[in-house]
Amino acid sequence: MTSIVLHAGLVLLASVAITQASVIATSIYLHRSLAHRSLAVHPVVDVMFRILLWLATGQRRQEWVAVHRKHHTYTDREGDPHSPRLLGLWRVQLLNVYYYAREARNPETVRKFAPDITEDALDRHVFSRGWIGVALGTALLCLVLGLWVGAAVMTLHATLYVFVLAPSINGLGHWRGVQNFDNTAYNSRVLAWITGGESLHNNHHAHPRAPKFSVRAREFDPSWPVIRALAAVRLIIVLGASVKVS
């Protein structure tokens, strides 16, 4: 019984750690650095973020950026890839991965909205094969933690990342919450703690190039301390200007 409890605790802790690392990498690298150019990352950090996201999520940076920029261009109106106002909250919450994949596989979307994210040799030969990244990430976990524990960790991580946190940003973030600014997105101070600050969505839509998503004293953006730490050792340069609201 004790062994089962210990293994369950290990699965939970490891899954949460990997999911939070993936969320923060997505927010800092794919979102703030590439999609909105509010940060510039050192080439070494660039590759590290890409490896982490390849192993944990299998996402391609060109596709993520293109889908996100299209969302900003057509926010909550015809053309938005995942608006709960158009599709319904539960369709986005439960099927967000489908809507993302459908848009990401549209070559016209990638060509039009991410022409500046050019493929390099790593993209062509390594990171374009997302399923290999996830398979390798799972194999590494199984090697370190054991077959069943490693598989359980990756399964729980995928569930949390794909079916809980990402949809909550796209779904609840455009459905209900608090607003500091006049747009169709909403903030959730609670969800922001576990989404790398992404659930301060109203703030972000008001100021897309702001590198820090929190604008009030009672809001917390978990990605910001990571950005500040990397900036302190010159691995990130903050380009955009932060916003404060009294």
Structure description:
With 246 residues, the protein is mainly α. It has one domain. Helix content is 63%, strand content 2%. The chain is built from twelve helices and two strands. It is globular. The mean pLDDT is 95.
Number of domains: 1
Residue-averaged pLDDT, rounded? 95
In helices, the fraction of residues equals 55-70%
Overall 3D geometry? globular
Low-confidence stretches: none
Please give the radius of gyration in angstroms: 18 Å
Structural class: mainly alpha
N→C terminal distance: 53 Å
**Residue fraction in strands:** under 5%
Give, in order, the helices and strands: HEHHHHHHHHHHHE
Largest sheet: 2 strands, antiparallel
As laid out across the biggest beta sheet, the strand order is 1-2
Work out the helix count: 12
Number of strands: 2
Produce the secondary structure layout.
Blueprint lengths: L1 H34 L3 E3 L1 H14 L4 H13 L10 H4 L1 H16 L2 H7 L7 H7 L2 H16 L1 H24 L18 H4 L8 H6 L16 H10 L3 E3 L8
Antiparallel strand pairs: 1-2
Helix pairs in contact: 1-2, 1-3, 1-9, 2-8, 3-6, 5-9, 8-9
Quick rundown:
The longest helix has 34 residues. With 246 residues, the protein is mainly alpha-helical. The mean pLDDT is 95.
